[in-house]
């Protein structure tokens, strides 16, 4: 009987391989509209490389004034974008998402210099940091870059978004959000607990789940100002984010090894061009169809499907309140 079981397992794995292959080749959203963005201003975090850079190029090519916020800021990057898009309206600001002080400085500068903000793309992220590494704020690096800092920035820029006729907030999430391990016991009134070292390799999926939770509540709180907030699934993009997983893997930890192997396999077998991965983001940023659609998780396969815990109101509200405490929002800064 053992050979029947073995054959069944191989058949299942083969079927999963075929499904994953088909999704990687045909499962990405396409954006075919030619909407002009002249007169619009967009902020893209992490816009110097990877998915963020492709989003910048796409928005700029439509005439949008694009502000890039990231750690890598130089004139060569700006000139290259201008040359590729024929759009001189490119602005670069430095921000370090491992520092709440830096995020607040960026928000202050934008609130003082910008008349409005039409599109906010929260794209900055890393695949994995070392378990023992902490930011200047004493937080886990992956959690701060991927969740807390985008959460803080979006709250601080809500005023600028309200000045737009149809402000749009977009978060880059991942299908790995479905593999998060956050429960009610993970969240206290003051913080979201870090994973233990044995499970630390799953932190990225947790942060991508938190992006969805944040987006959904931003959608609710900002609805009366005609501001939408949505999340998109880029599938498996061929970017450097997966290299960080390999770079920071702890080979003593089983989960780290499993995540590392799976990451390499996904990129090598099913990775797609970042230009294709970001089509869903551009659809959310430009399409008239999404003028009044908010709180969705856009992906072509199982569109709008979210992790089950996203529908747990008690958990989501606890996550929101804990995040407010961690980033130290004042009463005036909190969205009512």
Summarize the structure.
The chain is an alpha/beta fold.
Key terms for this structure?
single chain, alpha/beta, 7 strands, 46% helix
Give structural notes:
- By secondary structure, the protein is an alpha/beta fold.
- It has 12 helices and 7 strands.
- Strands 3-2-1-4-5-6-7 form a 7-stranded parallel beta sheet, with helices on both faces.
- Strand 5, helix 7 (203-221) and strand 6 (228-232) form a beta-alpha-beta unit.
- Helix 2 (50-61) crosses helix 3, helix 4 runs parallel beside helix 5 and helix 5 (141-156) runs parallel beside helix 7 (203-221).
- The longest helix has 25 residues, at 2-26.
- The protein is globular.
The helicity comes to 40-55%
Report the portion of residues in β strands. 5-15%
Pattern of helices and strands: HEHEHEHEHHEHEHHHHEH
Please summarize the sheet with the most strands: 7 strands, parallel
Assembly form of the protein = single chain
List the helices and strands and how they pair.
Layout: H1 2-26, E1 41-45, H2 50-61, E2 65-70, H3 75-85, E3 90-94, H4 100-113, E4 119-122, H5 141-156, H6 158-162, E5 168-172, H7 203-221, E6 228-232, H8 241-247, H9 254-270, H10 274-277, H11 279-286, E7 297-298, H12 313-327
Parallel strand pairs: 1-2, 1-4, 2-3, 4-5, 5-6, 6-7
Helix pairs in contact: 2-3, 4-5, 5-7, 5-12, 7-12
């Amino acid at each position: 009987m053992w050979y029947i079981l073995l054959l069944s397992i191989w058949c299942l794995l083969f079927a999963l391989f075929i499904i994953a292959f088909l999704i990687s080749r045909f499962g990405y959203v396409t954006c075919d509209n030619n909407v002009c963005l002249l007169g619009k201003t967009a902020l893209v975090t992490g816009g110097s490389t990877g998915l963020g850079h492709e989003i910048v190029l796409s928005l700029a090519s439509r005439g949008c004034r694009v502000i890039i916020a990231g750690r890598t800021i130089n004139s060569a990057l700006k000139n290259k974008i201008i040359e590729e898009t024929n759009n001189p309206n490119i602005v670069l600001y430095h921000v370090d998402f491992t520092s709440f002080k830096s995020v607040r400085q960026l928000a202050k500068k934008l609130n003082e210099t910008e008349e409005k903000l039409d599109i906010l793309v929260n794209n900055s992220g890393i695949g994995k940091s070392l378990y023992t590494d902490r930011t200047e704020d004493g937080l886990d690096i992956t959690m701060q870059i991927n969740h807390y800092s985008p959460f803080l920035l979006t709250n601080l820029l809500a005023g600028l978004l309200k000045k737009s006729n149809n402000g749009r907030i977009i978060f880059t999430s991942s299908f790995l959000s479905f593999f998060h391990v956050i429960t009610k016991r993970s969240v206290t009134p003051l913080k979201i607990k870090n994973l233990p070292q044995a499970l630390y390799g799953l932190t990225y999926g947790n942060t991508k789940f938190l992006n969805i939770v944040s987006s959904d509540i931003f959608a609710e709180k900002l609805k009366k100002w005609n501001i939408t907030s949505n999340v998109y699934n880029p599938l498996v993009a061929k970017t450097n984010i997966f290299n960080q997983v390999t770079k920071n893997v702890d080979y003593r930890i089983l989960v780290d090894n499993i995540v590392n192997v799976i990451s390499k396999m996904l990129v090598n077998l099913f990775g797609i061009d970042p230009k294709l991965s970001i089509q869903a983001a551009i659809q959310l940023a430009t399409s008239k169809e999404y003028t009044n659609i908010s709180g969705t998780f856009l992906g072509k396969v199982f569109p709008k499907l979210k992790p089950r815990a996203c529908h747990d109101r008690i958990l989501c509200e606890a996550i929101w309140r804990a995040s407010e405490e961690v980033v130290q929002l004042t009463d005036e800064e909190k969205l009512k």
